[in-house]
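Predicting structure from sequence has reshaped protein science. With that in mind, we have picked out one protein's residues alongside their backbone shape tokens:
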Amino acid sequence: MAKILVTGGLGFIGSHTVVELVNSGYEPIIVDDLSNSDPKIIDQLAKIIGYKPPFYKLDLCDEQGVKELAVKEPDIAGIIHFAAFKAVGESVQQPIKYYRNNFYSLLNVLNAFDGRPVNFVFSSSCTVYGQPDKLPVTESAPVKAAESPYGNTKQIAEEILTDMQKAGSSYKVISLRYFNPVGAHSSGLIGELPIGVPQNLVPFITQTAIGKREKITVFGNDYNTPDGSCIRDYIHVVDLAKAHVAALKLMETETFKGYDVFNIGTGQGSSVLQVIHAFEQSTGQKLNYQIGPRRDGDVEQVWGDVSKSKNILKWQTELNLDVMMQSAWEWEKYIAQNPL
């Protein structure tokens, strides 16, 4: 089995990707500094895949520690790099924190495994597009000024990877530009587990429904959208996890060379208010929400053209918004009864 290093592998997307890697015959090796994840997720993964995957607790900003990891794991065939801070609002308030963590971690990993024939999947984001001129946005759309430091770290990281390829790197690289991952594994054993106050919509919805939060604030209802709230392309995290496996398989082919980017989403946009109402309808839980002012760093609306992913990655989403909401709710109820 090919060994795949999964950085940030105990996080929301990383843990689901570990499951899909095992399902597809890979051997995942997890690295995580536990700054935004819980070590007990390893036990949850073991319940799903049947064993505890190898795990290293390591801050990837520690250059020497990453080099030592590369020595310990000489047979890494692929790297899926999730490890990064990801909250748009927090990045506006603490930009240096985001630039330091997101760049140092990437550069240290790239440097430590340089010279090896490694397939590298980068966790990018639709935030690289800023506010697109045309929707749905395609991979060839011009990259505009980022709306947040978080988005800027993704833009610059893609530039780093592109420059690395131009310099003749030993890596093959695919950047996956995610839209908005939500939901949880069908087992109900893993899902989004924010530390502190959630920075994303769906965990705030589920925590409000379960009683952890008093109410949800919708940041703005005066955007140029049908109901005035921001529009995003929400994708089930299991579908997203499978896209990483598809990316690895594409890079394993002789025809793939160098570097490419793919939009990873459903190809459809849903507003914040639509997501709230979808949760209420699919779960039967009424939500207490209010309209608040716009939030710095938010893009008005974005969703992607995913035809390239369908045609080249041979991947597309299978799970709809109702399933996303139902699975997220099942996860919230599980951790309420079984605190990690």
